[in-house]
Amino acid sequence: MTRRVKAALGSLAFLVLAPGIVAGLVPWLITHWGPLPPADGPDSLRWSGLILIVAGVVVVLEAFARFAWEGLGTPAPVAPTRTLVVSGFYRFVRNPMYVAVTALIFGQAVLFAGWAVAFYGVVIAATFYVFVHLYEEPTLRRVYGEEYAAYCAATPAWIPRFRRERSRR
User: Fold this and answer.
1) CA within 20 to 30 Å of 92's CA: 45, 62, 149, 163, which one?
2) How does pLDDT run across 91-115, given as a tens digit for each residue?
3) 102 with 127: CB under 8 angstroms?
4) Model confidence over 3-26: pLDDT tens digits?
5) Phi, psi of 162 (to 5 degrees)
6) Any alpha helices (H) in 18-92, and if so which ranges?
7) What is the pTM of this model?
8) What is the CA radius of gyration of the chain?
9) Apex 110 CA angle, 57 and 118, nearest 5
10) CA distance 104 to 120
C-alpha cells in the first residue's frame, strides 16, 4: 500500500473520530437536529447557519485530503505529515481545520437556535486555542524550524487573510 493511500485511510479514520464527534455527534446530542423552534427573528438569519456549516465541511474535507496527498500524513498527532502543508486553505490561515470545525459548530447553533451549542462552540474554540499554543505550534517549530517560522510570519493563525502578498522585486 502506498504512503498516500495509508495517509488517506488514516486521515479518513481521524476525520470520523475527531471532527465527526466534535462537530457532528456532540452538537447532535445537544440539538438532535430536530425541527427548528419558533424564530424570534427573521428565519433567513437562522438559515444563514447553513452557510457556516457548508463552508466548514468544505474546508475540513479539503484540509484532510491535503494532509494525506500533499503532506503524506494525517492531522492526528500520532501520524503527522512528512512535509509542512502550506497550500490550499493553509495559504490564508494557519489553522483552517480548527476554524472550520468551530464554524460547523456555530453554524448549528445559529440554525437550530441552540444556546447550548453556542456555549459548546466557545469551549471548543478555547480548547483549540490552548492546544495550538501549548502543543501544536511548539511541535511544528521544533520539527520544521525556519520553514515554519517563515510560514507563521506570512500567515495569520486564526483570522484568514484572503489577499496574497505581492513579491517584492
Assistant:
1) 45
2) 999 999 999 999 999 999 999 888 9
3) no
4) 888 889 999 899 999 999 999 999
5) -90, -5
6) 19, 26-31, 43-47, 49-69
7) 0.90
8) 17
9) 90
10) 12
